[in-house]
Automatic annotation (TrEMBL):
InterPro entries: Aldolase_TIM, NADH_flavin_oxidoreductase, OxRdtase_FMN_N
Keywords tagged on the record: Flavoprotein, Oxidoreductase
Organism domain of life: Bacteria
UniProt name for this protein: NADH:flavin oxidoreductase
The organism's taxonomic lineage, starting at the top: Bacteria, Pseudomonadati, Pseudomonadota, Gammaproteobacteria, Pseudomonadales
Keyword Oxidoreductase: yes
CDD domains: OYE_like_FMN_family (cd02803)
Molecular function GO terms recorded: FMN binding; oxidoreductase activity
NADH:flavin oxidoreductase/NADH oxidase N-terminal domain residues: 9-338
Signal peptide: none
Keyword Oxidoreductase tagged: yes
Amino acid sequence: MSSMKNTILSPHDIGGALSRNRLAVAPMTRVTATAQGMPTQKMLDYYLRFAQGGFGLVITEGLYTDRAFSQGYPNQPGLIDEEQALGWAKINQELQAHGALVFAQIMHAGALSQGNRFRTHTVGPSAIQPVGEQMSVYYGEGAYAMPAEMTEAEIAQVIQGFADTAARAVDTANFDGIEIHGANGYLLDQFLTAHTNLRTDRWGGDMKHRVRLLIDVVTAVKERVGHEVPVGVRISQGKVNDFNSKWPNGETDAHTIFGALADAGVDFIHVTEYEAWQPAFEGGKDSLITLARKCAPGITIIGNGNLHDPVQAVEALDAGADLIALGRGALSNPDYPLILSTNQTFREFDASILQPIADIKGSELALEQERQSH
């Protein structure tokens, strides 16, 4: 137990940003901002629990990047202007004072948008209606809208939005790093995915072409802030509306994506699977973590996916991860690093905190702890 604990609690340098341990809070959509996308006191209290609980890195929920098509949900926070950035600066100052790094996850929802105050329709790489139903926990109802195929001008606007938001995140909000959301079925993942990207121009075709937009976003963001803070990307196969999705060419696609990201100079790659330790593809033996490590030597790999058991967390670290990002494990144990360091018992996850709306609320135990702390 002592060796396992020492491994998880050892520090790690992420492209020049030093995390005090190998534990990160995974980005989780919480829809608790104002209708105008401003951070709230409730959000500060939510994030502060993780910093006070000893996490080395906190990655924010996805922050939308423009006044066009990027917003995905009602009450989603944005980072599109000075006022929003100053609101995040107050949160970051508090978290950093407690020893945590804070990375901004910046995202564009694309065809999966189900609540955008700036537009009445959605866009995607192709006019393909997303499968599945909108998520009720984020105020959605019924089928997704049919998106319009994006124009060259709109694609350029996406790239500019990511770059401008990253600069705002660093220069005004004082984030310690940038995570570009290329996972879970949102816009950049829609371009990566064969059945949602049917384009015949330079943005479509095989995976080497479909990864182009993601790489162009990485390049634009790195040109703006890469000399100041680490820049990385979150990648997944599964999507919020297509849970079992797999890359059709298996490890070949993985090598193409991870290799392109490494060549683009990312500081970290954050891979997420339902069970991060499982082989990524049928008939194979390597997890997505291991594949990312093989394709991107020397780059920080963050692994996410049911790794709240310290034994499995260490196995993921042994398999190639440098940090472990916790979702449900962090929600039920915002003081996870302190629990681990003092050999206490971890609390079970209470799924009721995500119903009926996945805003910020605590389990009865968490609420009781909050009451006792005041």
